[in-house]
Fold this protein.
Amino acid sequence: MLLVMSQIRAGIINVTGYIGVEIARLLYQHPWVMLKSVTGRSLAGKKLSEVFPHLENTGLEITTEIDEDVDIVFSAMPHKTSLNVVPQLLEKGIKVIDVSADFRLKDADEYPKWYGFEHPTPELLKNAVYGLPELHRVDIAGASLIANPGCYSTSTILALAPAVKAGIIEPGIIIDSKSGVSGAGRTPSMTTNYSEVNESIAAYSLGGHRHLPEMQQELGSLNSGIPLSITFVPHLIPITRGILSSCYAKLKNGISLEEDDIQRMYSDFYKEAPFVKIVGKPPRTKHVWGSNYCLIYVTVDKRTSTLIIICCIDNLVKGGAGQAVQNMNLMFNYSETTGLEALSIYP
Amino acid sequence: MLLVMSQIRAGIINVTGYIGVEIARLLYQHPWVMLKSVTGRSLAGKKLSEVFPHLENTGLEITTEIDEDVDIVFSAMPHKTSLNVVPQLLEKGIKVIDVSADFRLKDADEYPKWYGFEHPTPELLKNAVYGLPELHRVDIAGASLIANPGCYSTSTILALAPAVKAGIIEPGIIIDSKSGVSGAGRTPSMTTNYSEVNESIAAYSLGGHRHLPEMQQELGSLNSGIPLSITFVPHLIPITRGILSSCYAKLKNGISLEEDDIQRMYSDFYKEAPFVKIVGKPPRTKHVWGSNYCLIYVTVDKRTSTLIIICCIDNLVKGGAGQAVQNMNLMFNYSETTGLEALSIYP
Amino acid sequence: MLLVMSQIRAGIINVTGYIGVEIARLLYQHPWVMLKSVTGRSLAGKKLSEVFPHLENTGLEITTEIDEDVDIVFSAMPHKTSLNVVPQLLEKGIKVIDVSADFRLKDADEYPKWYGFEHPTPELLKNAVYGLPELHRVDIAGASLIANPGCYSTSTILALAPAVKAGIIEPGIIIDSKSGVSGAGRTPSMTTNYSEVNESIAAYSLGGHRHLPEMQQELGSLNSGIPLSITFVPHLIPITRGILSSCYAKLKNGISLEEDDIQRMYSDFYKEAPFVKIVGKPPRTKHVWGSNYCLIYVTVDKRTSTLIIICCIDNLVKGGAGQAVQNMNLMFNYSETTGLEALSIYP
Amino acid sequence: MLLVMSQIRAGIINVTGYIGVEIARLLYQHPWVMLKSVTGRSLAGKKLSEVFPHLENTGLEITTEIDEDVDIVFSAMPHKTSLNVVPQLLEKGIKVIDVSADFRLKDADEYPKWYGFEHPTPELLKNAVYGLPELHRVDIAGASLIANPGCYSTSTILALAPAVKAGIIEPGIIIDSKSGVSGAGRTPSMTTNYSEVNESIAAYSLGGHRHLPEMQQELGSLNSGIPLSITFVPHLIPITRGILSSCYAKLKNGISLEEDDIQRMYSDFYKEAPFVKIVGKPPRTKHVWGSNYCLIYVTVDKRTSTLIIICCIDNLVKGGAGQAVQNMNLMFNYSETTGLEALSIYP
């Protein structure tokens, strides 16, 4: 290995949320990236270490405006606010990975329905690539704008893609997901208050969660022969990090598969994916804690001919910051795993 | 109120598990019961308060043998061991509430399949009443032997009974349950080790959980017209107490129900049930913590015509000890709620 | 017991915090109290059950103003706001238990120092009784205004009172307290955000915590011969309920005590106190969860002649709402334990 | 940087405990180490990944005997069992880092008192170096046998060393430590059972914890002028990883220090220590989660002239496996931080 490869310069807009701060951690440890600029609104002017002591080594200060002398910007702003910033960056030739939902949906008509606004730049939706490397590796490599997937979407699309692609299941899919609290972000709220969440579990967004159209778009595009009908119910559980998605779908009539067959089909589907592991028994989210791995267990409930898929990710890594870095690696022709080799921390 | 009603005397076999010790707490606080005798194997000879300081006021000592000068015995032994004790107690005219699975299944043939033993007294299976008051109130009142339901079964049967009875759903039902760790009992194991469970969630028993045949038996008997096909996947989450069951079933073709209609149907079904509340938004297990209540939220996912039912109980109260006391109240003609009026403790 | 004793009517100002809502739970279950009126600012107009489902049975609505047709008012407002309300209530002959610090300190000069305001009614400070029944039972019985102690103060004063009174320790006392998160209240903040608190412990208020002057006042008044010098450091730990205070003080020169002696001295000191238990081994906060009990373990580190006292309470019960009800019982000549008999819920 | 530096080969005896498995994770990620052999008793014959899925990439199998074709062995056996293995390894010229207490105490007479056995090889106690790099960097570099410090000892010695060395405090020191549950090891027990530990805190080992003699030995050797008298009380709190030690000591008469002075003194003491950071406000254990850092906050309680030091480490990293790797780095002349650069994972 020769060190002729020069480092790229990166910036993070709105570093102060959990995804932003996790991107900062990963980039700081990335051998080919120099994290040059981080912004934040209310905390501008402070040292990054004042707010996030674990990032002291970065030596960075939080600024109001992004330094545009960078090769790539990670935009970690809330939905609807990225819209106003991303186009200018692209025009200046800066690549952008946006972790909000603002560029995830191909169909601009979905935005008013799910996000309550008309999309101002529908033409960008065509250029934006949905940043799930396991499905779009080649497109990501050539993209200027990446729409980084939602955390729930990542876990459920990875769980279901092989079965949908293979056409072995009926259209009616039940997805029951359980997420740690960091997925709700860093802004204090009653919903994330310790005493409310601890020793409790709840389902929410039963009227329709915003990650659902992403799932439909991505899974739907894998197999036009199955008119997917997805019921998705997220749950909040008292852990900080982790998503476990349990997916259920009837096998098509006449299809009889052994667990071994289906596990082999899954392994095959992901044979080029360094972060997806098909495992032989039900995984725990603890097995991916702090890492970019995605563990998938797939089995068949023979009594009911139901395919059951259990998928675990760390919502802030593979479900957010890690996936963003994985996308960046592809965009800059680095090895997909660079800077993401850290094993999970157990226990 | 006159105190002419005399107290009954009660005993607990194997008080040292979490269900046993919770029955002791509830009986100690019950106005019409004198807790007279508690047994335990390894801890026999110790004061109850030495092992369980919160029960100091009971003044009881753990003995090897149950004092048979009692009106009712709660048998809190592990599966297969109750079998050897219950018949003798019944012969002596002592009423028995057994919290194990040994008398829950009507069909003796199910025992080898699910529990690995031939049932030695299949005739008792006929006399035993499945102790879910919401379905069997009258039979319980007249019974000598109650098979107290499993914790998962309680939550899922209560969640689904009205819909099954009404015949509005297709046979394929998905039940995704999440349980606190106390459900796994008090005996230390790797599975319940703090560092393994904390900050983690896992699915388990995907090959078939032992509570499944109870669900099939009880729900199946409500409506012979629906050949139920239940997929049940339990999950272990890092809370001490609480079960949340999320149940999914397609509405039958042609059936179109508003959330209001279905909530009314549920409220109607449970109008005589003092501990079941149909609530207007998704409940949290924290809302039933420490109480005998069962909260049920029912809604329709119109996109997919799927009925979704979310049900919360405290696994050690309504899912165990509280239900046992509720059964005892019915058997001795006390008000169903006596000794169980405590509200949930929040937060 | 004859039912000629008529119920009193009670109100709660600012029911919406954790102490307020816990008082509501306890009063609802109290046999001699009718909870008549509960107020709250932002939530006025809502049913109590909408915000706190576990209180549905109360049937109450949150109002803006307190119904003054009551015998007692529990004021659960933040510090400094009680000041404006309490005097009027007292003038109308309504007894008041104030859970804020506004009437806890006898010396008005302490308020500017610790709370940043001049006390407007220093004369009320003389009439107010510090509501720790174990020290002021008689005064409480005759009082119109009770200043309910802080949660930390309750645990540390009860832990140290016998030793200070007996004069067996040197003046330098180290108190290291650990509290659950509910002590920080129900208002969302970064400090109580689940993802910040979970899997973490921190010390805080090292510059001086506001409960310190209470401790000094109450312990100081027990023995003028020891010029107390208290170092108090509170810690936030990831539990919802519970305070464990570890107290350290050198035994005076020449004093040599066996653990048995000192435990007997403590038992003796609290022989009239129904909620304080001197225990024979270190207690866990779980042993008081949800109850009004206070468990104290006292021992001597012979290597260093240091008295060590470990004290556990539930910060919302004995450290707040339960103590308030205990005070009310004394004020209305009920048995001190009425409505507070519930055992801890374990596990 | 040239890759001429050849890798060393390492083995781990008893990889199956939490410290063992964490050493495996760190060594796998270490650029100059090839992890060659891992042993375990009950699990011998299994793939490491079967038991610890996060270590799948190592490709290792658990064996009964250690492969002696290695340069260094990490012995992660329980106390008293290392004794039988270490001498043979040393004789074969293999360097050893022992994480048990078997070689930590210089005075062989302490073993019967604290560990209940006569030390069989007291001569080895002389050669063994107490592996706290911040105090013994040079000796460690030249050692063949390292006694890796206890987790509590690491946090308390680092917290107190500068103050003891400087001679600014009185001999009476109070140490109140709080540890996560992983410190109790991986073997299931009632004490570490989730339902017992969750929502609870307890003090333990008040009669004298085994880490106390280490603290006395190491701190005592820093300043013979202070006859240290240490009271140490550990507490178990419901987190998986982390120790926070709160240390209290009176400033010597006549010594008056500002927080700034004392922080500067501490910074100075640790200016060569890459993993110790003196911070300007009380740290949280979350700030060191998963990293080898030690954060120390030091202040003076002016009211009582008491020095207060708060110290945070991850008990499995700086308090165990990370420190062992840090020692290895020194022994093999690598940069002290190699393989330990990972930042804490937050939140």
Residues 151-166 of chain D form the longest helix (16 residues). The domain at 8-149+319-331 of chain D is CATH 3.40.50.720 (Rossmann fold). The mean pLDDT of chain D is 96. Chain D has two domains: 8-149+319-331, 152-315.
